[in-house]
């Protein structure tokens, strides 16, 4: 009756429109300003987004300019000036986060929309672990200042205290507010979120510069041992006479904690950027079901991954211990690294190609729904791949063009080409997995939904009936039980009785249904676990000092010391971020399969 009534009203409107042309023309004239208003409805939102983006970009450029000025040998911009700038940025972010939390506390009765795809508990747990290691680094900075307080600026003590406070407050914000979809004070909040994004990016850049300076000093020390003493380089400032015996321990330990602090800030900036993109966005509440993570029948992937991880630790120890020895020992260590890299990259290429073949056989369409978090993941994967690709092609050019012939020359060539191929295949595998729609057989999960979804009107599993629906009275074909079926024949009477008897209990039968073993899923899960551990291995090596690009001498001979060092200072941080981000993306692939 309602539908017929709606059709009649539409028909009346149609006839009225056709019978009176003068009235329609008047209506059209009245609709013109309304259309203009509707077209300009998003204008303030786009303006705020554009202005806040420009603010963040200029903030990043100011930070980059100060870091570059601090890295120059004259050092007009001293370290305490840079730390003062970073401290001011963190204090502003702390004030904004405090304001945001207080506003949410005062409006706690109003419902805040949340983006369930923004992050997951395991990502926040991993960031919390990185934050703990960053706090340990701050404590080492404070301990180092205590020993050298007589000859260093007090800002070296203020900065780690503010950074530790900033880290604790930011982790709290990530756990409780990162999924919020902001709908109030949108313009102001856009500037606050983008300030937090670029503050973390500047802190990431500062950590990258400090780490690069540390590795460059180690590289020059090794070259001096070998006999290259006439190279001009920037020597670090002389250290003060430490008043405690722990100063050298604190200073040497900082270099091992830099990688964790760097990854912490870059990941936080990515999560905050997703929050910035979600400001004012309308969230689709139809997809609330959590993905079950099943780990049965996992054997080959974890075993091979553990073998790769164990061999990585051995390669790291041997490489670092042999770099300060004779030239033959250095060449043996570099050769061993390239052999290890060729083997592990070859296995990763085979694994990624196998996963792509499995996906191509199914011909399942891709999911094109809007998801800012997933889109950012893919953009970061491709963007961070550029660093390793740049290093690889420079190495290929150096190997082909050099006149030197060390024993690892063509191993470097094969390793560089495999780096390019491996990233190409792994990126395709991750994109194919994250954008893949579920198959028809996967849409109806045999597991029961959570209790919060049983009476949820917005749940995608709820049938299209008004009122409260108890799923215990739904038949498998998603239709209500009809009591008139019992009057048809004897067979239907018995069937209805069976249904009624089954509804008297708590329906334990569905919980006991076991999904048949899917070989394809098990292969994809093992591939994901293997690639996760391999990416962790390839992150550990350069993060803790195993960087043959500095030590093999081929690229430095072709491009020169200054150019090649600049390339490495740009490419290695991107490559490290790619490996860590690939671990996060591949874990999502594992859960999505």
From TrEMBL:
GO molecular function list:
proton channel activity
Q: Which UniProt keywords apply?
A: Cell membrane, Hydrogen ion transport, Ion channel, Ion transport, Membrane, Transmembrane, Transmembrane helix, Transport
> Does the keyword field hold Transmembrane?
yes
**Which segments of the protein form a coiled coil according to its record?**
none
Acyltransferase among the record's keywords? no
Question: Where found in the cell?
Answer: Cell membrane
* Compositional bias ranges of the Basic and acidic residues kind: 26-38
By sequence similarity, the record places it as follows: Belongs to the otopetrin family.
Query: Could you identify this protein by its name?
Result: Otopetrin-1
Native source species? Channa argus (Northern snakehead)
């Amino acid at each position: 009756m309602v539908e017929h009534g709606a059709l009649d009203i539409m028909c009346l409107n149609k006839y009225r429109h056709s019978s009176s042309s003068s009235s329609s023309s008047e209506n059209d004239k009245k609709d013109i300003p309304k259309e203009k208003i509707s077209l300009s409805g998003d204008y303030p939102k786009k303006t705020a987004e554009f202005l806040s983006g420009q603010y963040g970009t200029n903030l990043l450029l100011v930070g980059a300019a100060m870091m570059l000025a601090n890295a120059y040998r004259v050092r007009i911009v001293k370290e305490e000036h840079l730390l003062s700038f970073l401290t001011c940025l963190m204090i502003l972010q702390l004030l904004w986060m405090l304001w945001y939390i207080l506003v949410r506390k005062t409006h706690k009765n109003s419902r805040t929309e949340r983006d369930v795809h923004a992050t997951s508990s395991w990502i926040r747990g991993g960031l919390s672990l990185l934050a703990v290691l960053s706090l340990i680094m701050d404590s080492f900075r404070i301990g180092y200042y205590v020993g050298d307080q007589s000859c260093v600026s007090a800002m070296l003590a203020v900065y780690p205290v503010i950074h530790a406070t900033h880290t604790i407050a930011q982790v709290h914000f990530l756990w409780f507010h990162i999924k919020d979809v902001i709908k109030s004070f949108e313009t102001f909040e856009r500037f606050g979120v983008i300030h937090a994004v670029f503050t973390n990016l500047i802190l990431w850049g500062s950590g990258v510069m400090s780490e690069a300076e540390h590795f460059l000093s180690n590289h020059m020390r090794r070259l001096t041992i070998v006999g290259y003493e006439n190279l001009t380089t920037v020597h670090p400032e002389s250290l003060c006479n430490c008043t405690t015996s722990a100063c050298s321990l604190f200073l040497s330990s900082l270099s091992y904690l830099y990688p964790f602090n760097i990854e912490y800030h870059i990941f936080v900036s990515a999560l905050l950027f997703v929050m910035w993109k979600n400001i004012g966005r309308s969230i689709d509440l139809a997809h609330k079901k959590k993905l079950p993570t099943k780990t049965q029948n996992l054997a080959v992937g974890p075993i091979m991954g553990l073998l790769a991880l164990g061999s990585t630790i051995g390669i790291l120890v041997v490489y670092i211990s042999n770099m300060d020895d004779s030239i033959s020992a250095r060449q043996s260590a570099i050769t061993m690294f390239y052999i290890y890299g060729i083997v592990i990259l070859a296995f990763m290429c085979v694994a990624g190609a196998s996963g792509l073949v499995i996906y191509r056989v199914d011909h399942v369409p891709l999911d094109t729904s809007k998801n800012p978090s997933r889109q950012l993941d893919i953009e970061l994967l491709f963007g961070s791949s550029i660093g390793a690709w740049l290093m690889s092609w420079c190495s290929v050019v150096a190997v082909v063009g050099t006149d030197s012939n060390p024993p690892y020359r063509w191993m470097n060539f094969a390793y560089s080409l495999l780096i390019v191929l491996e990233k190409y295949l792994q990126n395709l595998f991750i994109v194919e997995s994250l954008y893949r729609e579920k198959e028809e057989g996967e849409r109806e999960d045999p597991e029961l939904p959570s209790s919060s979804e049983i009476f949820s009107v917005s749940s995608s599993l709820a049938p299209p009936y008004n009122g409260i629906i108890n799923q215990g009275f739904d038949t498998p074909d998603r239709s209500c039980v009809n009591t008139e079926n019992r009057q048809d024949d004897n067979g239907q009477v018995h069937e209805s009785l069976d249904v009624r008897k089954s509804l008297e209990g708590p329906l334990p039968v569905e919980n006991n249904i076991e999904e048949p073993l899917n070989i394809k899923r098990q292969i994809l899960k093992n591939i994901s676990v293997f690639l996760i551990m391999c990416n962790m291995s390839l992150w550990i090596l350069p993060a803790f000092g195993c960087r043959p690009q500095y030590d093999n001498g081929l690229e430095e001979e072709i491009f020169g010391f200054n150019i090649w060092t600049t390339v490495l200072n740009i490419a290695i941080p991107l490559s490290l971020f790619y490996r860590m981000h690939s671990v996060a993306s591949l874990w999502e692939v594992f859960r999505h399969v």
